[in-house]
Amino acid sequence: MRFDIISCQPDLLDSPFSHSILKRAQQKNLVEIHIHDLRKYAVNKHGQIDDYAFGGGAGMVMMIEPIDKCISALKAERNYDAVIYMTPDGQTLNQSIVNQFSLLQNIIIICGHYKGVDERVRQQFVTHEISIGDYVLSGGELGAAVLTDAIIRIIPGVLNDESSALTDSFQDGLLAPPVYTRPAEYKGLQVPEILLSGDAPKIEQWRFEQAIERTKQRRPDLLDG
After folding, report:
1. Number of separate helices (H) and strands (E) present in the chain
2. Cα 147–11–79 angle (5° rounding)?
3. Are residues 69 and 174 in the same domain?
4. Is 134 annotated as ligand-binding?
5. Residue 137 assigned to a binding site
6. 139 in a labelled binding site
7. Residue 190, pLDDT score
8. Do 55 and 82 fall within a single domain?
9. Which of 34, 125, 140, 215 has its CA 20 to 30 A from that of 118?
10. Where is the tRNA methyltransferase TRMD/TRM10-type domain (predicted)?
11. Is 168 annotated as a binding residue?
């Protein structure tokens, strides 16, 4: 699977993709992550990629020309299944969306900045608009890292134990149940006896019941319907 991420602040993405699971996924050749500096496609020698908004108002707007040049160069080399724009007014990211994206092969992600992109970018190139929450960040880079991480970790072969991703919160519409590890007792705090019983069917039933209870308490909206 390949990700091409377009950013005017590419250095912000160095760390998230250089460590832990995402680094190992690239080393295993399960994914490719390419960061493209939008300023290489600037409209002039000064590296300009933004301009004032028509009609006035505070803030700058990312221009269509540099984005068009970058996307056109990428599409000249391969076909893309999705062009995603990270924006606060996009569809809120959830596990179902992540699962759908994980089935694709080539994805472009556009990181917004300033007051966003010229609306014609959204009309002409973007196939999906995604938000990671109802708040505004300085740019789309952190959102792009969140989206990419969420997709990559469920690609077969990325995690050492593939069943781990299938038991994460939201995969079955529920929050994950509580988990414990050694020691079985710590300063008077005990691990539930059922988890020490070795009775796999009863343990699974306990976990299911705990997942439902936790979801009722913390995210009852997930149980609607």
Report:
1. 8, 9
2. 50
3. no
4. yes
5. yes
6. no
7. 97
8. yes
9. 34
10. 1-223
11. no
User: What is the average pLDDT value for the chain, to the nearest integer?
Assistant: 94
Q: Tell whether the torsion through CA atoms of 68, 55, 111 and 10 is positive or negative.
A: positive
- List the domain range (segments joined by +) for residue 38: 2-152
Give the model confidence (pLDDT) of 72-112 as tens digits.
Answer: 999 999 999 999 999 999 999 999 999 999 999 999 999 99
Q: How many domains does the chain have?
A: 2
Residue 216 sits in the same domain as residue 106 = no
CATH of residue 100: 3.40.1280.10
pLDDT digits (tens, 9 = 90+) for 11-31: 999 999 999 999 999 999 999
Among 8, 12, 4, residue whose Cα is nearest residue 35: 4
125, 213: one domain: no
Q: How many CB atoms lie within 10 A of CB 91?
A: 11
**Any binding-site annotation on 224?**
no
- Please check if 132 is assigned to a binding site: yes
Global pTM reads 0.90
pLDDT in tens, 166-211: 666 677 889 999 999 999 999 999 999 999 999 999 999 999 999 9
Residues 6+ apart with CB under 8 A from 8: 37, 38, 39, 49, 50, 62, 111, 113, 139
